């Protein structure tokens, strides 16, 4: 377990301790204190009270932890022995160490296309995105994401005009990667979808086009258009596997 710390190189995680999986027990809630969406990890004489943001994520954490504990107990006696903390790297960069993908999506505009420059965009890792957006990814989420990968051309609506930009888009590992064409080696931008919702545009969005879906996280809103009903259905299917929020379609 770890906590965030501020350094000259940006926000980082610092490891404070560890619980060997073979020796822990998971308790739903806590016998001594009532905290909503909480569970407790017991290990020898130590206990750690944890709280999830909602019931769904609490269930996800408890399920994955219990499965990991069972696997550790059924493994070879020495398989679960980890190196001492002093021998491990104790700092892990967070989202602050990388560029914000939500804002960088607007790098892929008409000026960038005209320049012909290759922009190498480093995508945020799943760990970074989970920390920044206060969400979690479980084992089942990862398995589902691995089964849902897609690439193809999409039209993205410009924020301040009625124009649409054609981009080659790749969906993998909970993230959309945007390229000028399918020949390009580096993406113009990336958009991690964890925490987003996917819907069809509402009347107030004033989108008078067919086959359009809307991605939104707080004040970040994006509209994408496909060229056929089949393509529309496929993109909804794969994005829904990553957004972790209920999708509403009419």
Automatic annotation (TrEMBL):
Source species taxonomy: Eukaryota, Metazoa, Spiralia, Gnathifera, Rotifera
Region Disordered, annotated ranges: 72-117
Compositionally biased tracts (Low complexity): 89-107
Biased composition (Polar residues): 75-85
Domain PH stretches: 1-70, 147-244
PROSITE patterns: PH_DOMAIN
Organism whose genome encodes this protein: Brachionus plicatilis (Marine rotifer)
Pfam family, one: PH
GO molecular function, one term: guanyl-nucleotide exchange factor activity
Protein name: Pleckstrin domain-containing 2
